Amino acid sequence: MKIDASLVRKLLDAPSDDTVLVLLEGRAQVVEQAALSSKQYHGAAVLLSRAELVERLGTPSPAEEDVTRLSASLQDAVDKLGA
């Protein structure tokens, strides 16, 4: 699983602050938080919501280098978890 800038950008571009970045079966995915109660997403680990991402970046329209830097930080954190 790879958390790259395009995945972080997909989360930023989501229409709802309730959209989340999750890990499920070794894959990172962007999904609506409401979907997490479905059987399809049973066991998914939430990494970050869109609202949390915007708060961390300080803007809903960050520079691409900021998105790249944050995606690398998320990937590093996941790697350290052994996920």
Give the gist of this structure:
The protein is of the alpha+beta class.
Structural description of this entry:
It is a single chain. It is built from 3 helices and 3 strands, in the order H-E-E-E-H-H. With 83 residues, it is α+β, with helices and mostly antiparallel strands. It has a 3-stranded antiparallel sheet with strand order 2-1-3. Strand 1 and strand 2 (27-32) form a beta hairpin. The chain starts with a helix and ends with a helix. Helix 1 (5-12) crosses helix 3 (64-81).
Descriptive labels:
3 helices, globular, 3-stranded antiparallel sheet, 83 residues, 20% strand, alpha+beta
- Number of discrete helical segments: 3
Strands side by side in the biggest sheet? 2-1-3
Give the averaged pLDDT, no decimals.
Answer: 92
Give the helix proportion (percent range). Answer: 40-55%
Beta strands, count: 3
Backbone structural class: alpha+beta
Which series of helices and strands comes N to C? HEEEHH
Beta percentage is 15-25%
What is the general shape?
A: globular
Distance between the termini: 9 Å
Q: Regions with pLDDT < 50 over 5+ consecutive residues?
A: none
Radius of gyration: 12 Å
Major beta-sheet overview? 3 strands, antiparallel
